[in-house]
Amino acid sequence: GWDRIRVKGRFLGEGRFLSEPFRHQGTLSFDQVFSLKAEAEGRLFDRTYRLGLGLVGHDYQASLEDSLGSRVVLKGQGNRTEAQGQVAWPRPLEGWAQVAFESDGSQWQARVQSPGVRLPLFLPLDLSGEVAGNGEQVAGQLGPLALRGTWSHLLLALSPTPLAVGSLRGEGRLISGRLEASLHYTSPYATFPLQVGQEKGAFRFRSPYGEGEYRGGALALRLRGLPIRALDEFRLFGQALYRDGGLSGRLTLKGRYLEAGADLRRLGADIQGRLQTPLGLLPFAGAYDPEPGLTLKAQDLLLRYQGGLSLRGRARLGPLVLGADLLYDGGFQGWARVETPWLAGVLQGESGRLVLAGLKGYAQGEGEVYPELRIAGRFLPPLPEGLEVPPLAFRLDRKGLEVLGVGRLEFAGRYPFHLALPWRYRGVSGRFQAEGTLERGQLSLSSPYGRVEAQGGWRDLRVRGQGEVPYVGPVRMAGKLDLLGLAYQAQAHLEKLDLRLGLVGRGAGFRFQGQAPGLRLLGGYEEELSLLLQAEAFDLSPWGLPARASGTWGTRGGRLRLESPYGEVLFTGEELLSAQARLSGPFFQGEGQVSPEGLSLAVRGEYEKNGLGVRLKAEGEGPWRAFRLGLSGEARLPYVGALPLSGQVWTEGGGLRYRLQGPLSLEGKGPSYRGSLALPFAALGREGRIAGSFQGQGLQVAGKG
């Protein structure tokens, strides 16, 4: 009868589930109660899976296993269901999620515990959270990832998530099992957009600086000049492949002063590069491996890092010498010493402390470097003779560097600083001022003779200045300065001489050239100073000298002749700053020695014509600013006889001055002079006196008397 009907059967089929292949088979029966046993297998995302299902009346159970090791068991009665188990995250995520699932009809909820999930380049992620839904509808939060929508069209939002360096944020969507996302990477060193797409079993990454692909557990990256900022700007090039738990490929980092390459192998790399500094080129090489850690060697200086950090050996970079035998492994042991011709310091390890035992040279100080930074001392710069500045006591701590009463540098934000340094040089007072940040600022140097200013980025400071310099006259200048690259260029115009100078340099090396009517200058510094001056009737009257210069002079001396209406001077020598001088004219001869320190001179003169005779001797020496020449001799005049002469020639206010005393007195500066005479005479048995005054410019004389 109908109450004793029994049914048995089998079924099988295949199709697609979320666009992936799906096969199923099973048996069913009815003997007072309905029963069903079914098995299904298919592929979803990055795995294959097997599903088992059993149903007897209102009770049912199911199990799920996949090729990545997931296992979930489900039990239910009627429209109520519970499930528990662990699930492997879809690649490229690596890790497990403990899942607890409950449903009542179409309403369902899943709680996930999943700390320590790994993703290439990310810090370990905690994807714990809760997801709930109603049928196809779903919403929830798993760690930094928020999701909402339907399983066939799921919207994703990633809040800022830390990576090994920097963080990643963005939005995406999962459409029929395929991922699309627009992400943005941000760090102190680089910022760029990143597009992610899933196609044909692979994840593809695209950015303006390269692309990548994740397929079958392998991550391949290609970089084309990824900009990286770390004090200076660098570009990262190369290819890298992460597969089977190891890396391969080569990456190259290029900057203005640093170039380094890394050959990737397994979880390590072979490293080599070079650092360009104002003191010279420092090549280095080393390797990184998980077990021995990082090793880098420059000359005989070896750095190792594996749990503890050690620095041993010695390296020289130009005038700087670094020697060390220092170990840090929870505490410091040993020492490190830095020496230059200008500064030397010793760091000493004292268990948990690293102290500066002695700083000597252009700065003196001592204190603690670690764990607290507290150093006090004073700067003792090598000031030129005659230059005076206030005492430069300083304090250094983690907040900044302060030069008491002068300025301060803050170790925060953009490293703002300010400086106001008064100075005095041989009676002339001025001030040097500076303010700015790590990226840009402005500088100024002021004195009674003028002001020079520079402002802009430290790589592109615009320099302008004007003033009036003793012996030179008005000066205008303009240029550019790259402080980070130690590169500079400038142009100057000395209006009094109509001399235009150009200067280009980097570090201590520079070249210059200049030109004025009758004058050409060439020179520079590359390991040693070079200078060549070429003159052709160059007018020296702007310096108060009625003369013209012709010849050459330079680093190896030369021959330079000064010609005037009164005679000439010939300078000869084999050094830049020392010369022999020979003076000659119609009525005098002399010789002397010229150097930066000053001048020594001896001249003899004699004139006789129509009964008039003069004999004169001049000798003297001294520095240029206070040179003094003594004069002595006599003059013979018809009807007058012998008259004694005495006087002096000296430098004052950038010009040449002279004075004669006796019956004939004369005083002047440069070619301008004035004088008087009071001469007794005897003729035809009678005596008398001639008196008068005169003044002139060069050979032009006017008088009365």
Quick summary:
The chain is mainly beta and 705 residues long. 0% of the residues lie in helices and 74% in strands.
Primary descriptors:
Translocation/assembly module TamB; 705 residues; 62-stranded antiparallel β-sheet; 62 strands; mainly beta
Describe this structure in words.
It comes from Thermus scotoductus. This is Translocation/assembly module TamB. The protein has no helices and 62 strands. It is mostly beta strands and about 700 residues long. It has a 62-stranded antiparallel beta sheet that branches. The mean pLDDT is about 85.
- Helix content bin: under 10%
Characterize the main sheet. Answer: 62 strands, antiparallel
Structural class: mainly beta
Using the alpha-carbon principal axes, give the shape: rod-shaped
Which strand-content bin applies to the residues? Answer: over 45%
Query: Rg from C-alpha positions?
Result: 45 Å
Distance between the termini: 169 Å
- Count of DSSP helices? 0
Multimeric state of these chains?
A: single chain
Could you name the ranges where pLDDT drops below 50 across 5 or more consecutive residues?
A: none
Find the count of extended strands (DSSP E, 2+ residues). Answer: 62
Give the averaged pLDDT, no decimals. 87
